[in-house]
Amino acid sequence: MTRAGTVAASRTPGTLKPGGTESECHPWRIRLVEHPARFESPFFKAAKRTAHKILDETADEDLPYGPRPVGSEHWEMHHGGSLWVKTAGGWRMYRARVGIEWSMQFCAEPSRVDRLRRDAAELVAAFPLTLPALAELGYEEAEELLRTPVVDADGVEAWTDSLFNVCVPMSRGNHQGILPKVPGEHHYPWPVKGADFVRYEDFQLWVTLPDGTHGAVSPVDRRGSGDGHVRLVLAPEGSEAADTLAQAQAQDLGLMAVLPSNSSAALQAFAEQIEPGQRTAAGPPATRRARGNGRRSPAR
């Protein structure tokens, strides 16, 4: 079944200027079709089975992206370039130069994928415990994958669905979620999304902008500075803030889009670090009860 929608616009010839707009005069059409049924290749099944065994052996504090799933939740395996190695302290996962998303294998040039294989082989060679440990887990194809050059589409497919590409373990939200719930890596740029895994828990990275869309902000100074301004680092295309952010990030201007400490975005971002009802995020940090230990500590 195919559903079709048409979007048309017009272009006015001329020189593009800051603050101006550009559009097309030729109508264009996007066909919305049903996604083909997904199946798990033998390569993916073997990689996922091994990754689950690795995760079972991994302590909670060593998991790469967020806590272990609970209840009905489960790990989703992201094609994000998962370079698993065994160290003296246990399993560790590094990210490859790039990850190959499943659909991107069809435009992947074999020699460029082979560079990823060589990178992975060099990393694994630095951790000699890795291949014996993987063989013990039943992933005996690891050695062959690492030493076999990628020269054709079959090789690209095998690498794309291998343990060294497909097994970045994430929750459903962190993998493919959309705001206002959880921002997923598939929908938000990694330089911003990555901050979710290093930020203080009491700093709200994702905020609702005045026009109702969702964006991301960062502090402009270190924790404890008392500066409540926030820098807008992501705004969705088409939002009121998007054009301003794009102009600020232009290389020839080198500016930041900064929101004041009494803006709704700043108040959301620092909500857990300021006193309830406070109308500015600036000033000394509030004293809050630390989670789980019953003691009071400065929030920021």
| Parts with pLDDT < 50 across at least 5 consecutive residues | 1-24, 289-300
Query: Share of helix among residues?
Result: 25-40%
Strand content: 15-25%
User: Structural class of the helix and strand makeup?
Assistant: alpha+beta
Alpha-carbon distance between the two ends: 54 Å
How many domains make up the 3D coordinates?
2
The radius of gyration computed from the alpha-carbon positions, rounded to a whole number of angstroms, is 23 Å
Number of helices: 10
Which outline best applies?
A: globular
Query: How would a textbook summarize the main sheet?
Result: 4 strands, antiparallel
Summarize model confidence as the mean pLDDT.
86
Strand segment count: 12
Can you walk through the features of this model?
The chain has 300 residues and is α+β, with helices and mostly antiparallel strands. It has two domains: 42-170, no CATH class; 177-298, no CATH class. Helix content is 27%, strand content 17%. The chain contains ten helices and twelve strands. The chain has helices at 42-57, 110-125, 130-136, 141-147, 153-160, 163-166, 172-176, 190-193, 242-248, 264-269; strands at 2-7, 28-33, 76-78, 82-87, 90-95, 168-170, 206-208, 214-219, 230-234, 258-259, 287-289, 296-298. A hairpin with a 6-residue loop joins strand 11 and strand 12 (296-298). The protein is globular and about 60 Å long. It starts with a strand and ends with a strand.
In short:
The chain is an alpha+beta fold and 300 residues long. The chain folds into two domains: 42-170, no CATH class; 177-298, no CATH class. It has ten helices and twelve strands.
